[in-house]
Amino acid sequence: MKRVIVTGSTGMVGKGVLLECLESPYIAQILVVNRSSVNIKHPKLKEVLLNDFMQIDTVFEELKGYDACFHCMGVSAMGMSEVQYTHVTYDMTKKLVDILFDLNPEFTFNYVSGTGTDSTEKGRTMWARVKGKTENMIFTKGFLDAYAFRPGAIVPEKGIKSRTSWYQFFYIILRPFFPLMKRSKNITTTTNIGIAMIRSILEPIELKILFNKDINALATKEGM
């Protein structure tokens, strides 16, 4: 039985991960850290509200005793400068990484990145460089284990909606095609991301950067 921290659980991916953790018999307790409430009551769920994620050290005691973090917090880079996007994506993640490592180096840290992330940190696309820098920082920190989830096209399930209005607009249009889309190994679902996250801490794998086909393969792997 594992105890996990989930960030960004009011967003589409984070909500999917949270729902799978709540349903999983392998997860004993979940701590969600958000700016706003998920408005879910469950015996396994504990919630910490934090307006400024850079003040994560103020809830240091609440973070003790966990085995893994599923860091799903993120924003679109649209309309943001590199400085602004770096602060939200890299600086806030590093603050969390540093604290969790100090608490427990024998920890698994899973980061929701994205397809197109630039591990070299030298490409032309700003968001891809920043995501790559963030991934590299996590991988070199020294945790017992770490994974970067790089989903591309995602089908939301279990009533989950995107908080990004134009994403949600397209999801509404595409909804009739969801059953067909889910047949593709190159399209994943919010459910599969959540299941794959849980499996990664129960049955560690060698592959550390997971794309949609890898997420789907891990989520549907037999043996659990």
Automatic annotation (TrEMBL):
Q: Which residues form the NAD-dependent epimerase/dehydratase domain?
A: 4-113
Alphabetical list of Pfam families matching this protein: Epimerase
User: Where in or outside the cell is it found?
Assistant: Membrane
Give the transmembrane ranges. none
Task: Return the Gene3D superfamilies for the record.
Answer: NAD(P)-binding Rossmann-like Domain
Q: What is its main location?
A: membrane
Name of the molecule in the record: NAD-dependent epimerase/dehydratase family protein
Source organism per UniProt = Pseudotenacibaculum haliotis
